[in-house]
Design brief:
- The chain has a single domain, classed as Sulfite Oxidase, Chain A, domain 2 (Alpha-Beta Complex), CATH 3.90.420.10.
- It is about 25% helix and about 25% strand.
- The chain has a five-stranded mixed sheet. A four-stranded antiparallel sheet has the order 3-4-8-9.
- It is built from five helices and eleven strands.
- The radius of gyration is 18 Å and the shape is globular.
- It starts with a helix and ends with a strand.
Amino acid sequence: MKRAVLYLALALAVSPALAGSEAGTPRDMVLLTVSGPLGKTNRGPVDAKRDVLLAGQKAQFKSAFEFDRAMLLALPQATVTGQPNTFAKPASFSGPRLRELLESLEAAKLKVTFIAVNSFAGWLAPQDIEASDWILALSADGVPLGIGQQGPIWLVKSGMQQLDSSDPKHGDWVWNVFYIKIGE
């Protein structure tokens, strides 16, 4: 009997840790929500009372995938160097590669829209994502990006700052990203 109680206590103590890692559920503050045609999800529909920013963007989905910082850092990381016009010199940005994040969610290869906390929205076509090393930067020169430093997530790519696009909302260098929508 004592052994059964010990095993039960051990199972209960270990199961929350396993649930968070195996199910891919956030254990800390959610930084990013991805919706659209995804093969993997870890949350249900938008709750207007709980998801104020998403509701304010008129986001509608039946399921999505949420990431906290640790989950984003657990993905394969990449580094790109670039100089946004707000920086005096080039910086080394690091974070998960967008292409690999989308692949990990089994996302459909459709137009991807990035929505910032201030409601700015930019987009990338699948060929844009394949053609460049886009990352969801979490840090610049090794320092985590805060909200006041275009973070906590900044869509950054290697090479030139501007894309060859006539659409001013094309997805170059969207900062304060909190929501990614796959598809129209």
